[in-house]
Automatic annotation (TrEMBL):
Pfam families: Ala_racemase_C, Ala_racemase_N
Family: Belongs to the alanine racemase family.
Protein name in the entry: Alanine racemase
Cellular component terms (Gene Ontology): cytosol
Function: Catalyzes the interconversion of L-alanine and D-alanine. May also act on other amino acids.
Positions bearing N6-(pyridoxal phosphate)lysine: K39
Organism in which the protein naturally occurs: Staphylococcus equorum
Keywords: Isomerase, Pyridoxal phosphate
Catalytic activity: L-alanine = D-alanine
């Protein structure tokens, strides 16, 4: 991983903010394990550096979506516990054992197939978390009989460890009683057998909105990075989170479009009068999609409209006379009330802040603040 980069755009990532958000949930849920979710490259901000920083501040158990993500953390020295929330192919079960990764059991059929893949004479433990489908309708076991059969199958094999059970809420970030109904269904099933060491149902929204005495672990994803799961959740809680990401670029060229001249693909923008424009070296390949046309970026405090079609690697903005080549551009800001907040970008893109962050491409250098010195990570120059 290189500490150099050669383009004029980058992400600022505030590690102190992420640690502060982690500690918010430790305070909200004392005596529980707070499990940071660092899937999707830490929601676009860099899973390795974030996991290291959180380990230094007490994190003991991380969650990811895939086995590859778990192995990536192991390859970079993350020795804390890791749970893969998604389903791994059964023929890769020995990789999970090799890298000491806990995995999700979505069904009895899956478990039986996975056991067949484990070599005779295996002496290493494999930690398993049963996933219950309590209303999300995706992965998981739906009825108590299958759940009991899964546990019996685990306990009948040496070196298989029934470590956890969990579910996932479908509507925790929305009004209504759905979350409470799912929690009650979850508890009703789990109560019928011996409880494992880790019981978890609450995601960011659930952990912000409610405390469950039944569970001893909370999984924190989007809110770890300082973002609320929805405007509804934000309006209902009095908990301050610190957004941790800022996307910066600069104006690399300015020019004046004369009346009648057009710019970018399709020539959808035509100047009605002499118009000064700036070129930014950022495009949809970086995670700034074509839907951003008509939005604005912040240049020296000026709100500058994105005009023409956003290109793969470049974006065009309409600028005042005071803006010049080399001026800093804020595409996404780390202030929640900014016109360039992740939520504002999400509204423009007709999506949610989660997707805005996850779209941030790995070719963007990340500059980490909050350690003793700034740390630059450029994944293209390994």
């Amino acid at each position: 991983m290189s500490d150099k980069y050669y383009r004029s755009t980058y992400l600022n990532v505030d590690l102190n903010a992420i640690v502060s958000n982690f500690q918010v949930f430790q305070t909200l849920h004392p005596n529980k394990t707070v499990m940071p979710v660092v899937k999707a490259n830490g929601y676009g901000l860099g899973s390795i550096k974030i996991a290291r920083q959180l380990m230094e501040n007490g994190a003991e158990f991380f969650a990811v979506a895939t086995l590859d993500e778990a192995i990536e953390l192991r390859m970079h020295g993350i020795n804390a516990k890791i749970l893969v929330l998604g389903v791994i192919p059964t023929y890769n079960i020995n990789k999970a054992i090799q890298h000491r990764v806990a995995i999700t059991v979505p069904s009895k059929v899956w478990l039986a197939e996975a056991i067949e893949e484990i070599p005779t004479g295996n002496k290493k433990d494999l930690w398993l978390h049963a996933k219950l489908d309590t209303g999300m309708g995706r992965l998981g076991i739906k009825d108590v009989d299958e759940y009991k059969e899964v546990i019996d199958l685990i306990q009948s094999h040496d070196h298989l460890v029934f470590e956890g059970v969990f579910t996932h809420f479908a509507c925790a970030d929305e009004p209504g009683d759905s979350m409470n109904k799912q929690q009650a269904y979850f508890e009703g099933i789990v109560e019928q057998v011996e409880k494992p060491n880790y019981i978890h149902s609450q995601n960011s929204a659930g952990a912000l909105m409610k405390d469950s005495q039944f569970c001893n672990t909370v999984r924190i994803g989007i809110s770890l990075y300082g973002y609320y799961p929805s405007e509804y959740v934000k309006s209902k809680v009095k908990i301050h989170l610190k957004p941790s990401a800022q996307w910066i670029s600069e104006v690399v060229q300015t020019k004046v479009l004369q009346t009648g001249e057009s710019v970018s693909y399709g020539s959808i923008y035509t100047a009605k009068e002499p118009t000064k424009i700036g070129i930014i070296p950022v495009g949809y390949a970086d995670g700034y999609p074509r839907m951003m046309t008509g939005f604005s970026v912040n240049v020296n405090g000026y709100q500058c409209e994105v005009i023409g079609k956003v290109c793969m690697d470049q974006t065009i903005i309409k600028i005042p006379e005071e803006v010049n080549t080399g001026d800093k551009v804020i595409l996404m800001d780390h202030h929640s009330d900014s016109r360039q907040s992740a939520e504002a970008l999400g509204r423009q893109q007709q999506t949610i802040n989660y997707e805005v962050l996850c779209r941030l491409n790995r070719r963007l250098p990340r500059i980490y603040h909050g350690t003793q010195d700034l740390e630059i990570r450029n994944e293209l120059l390994k």
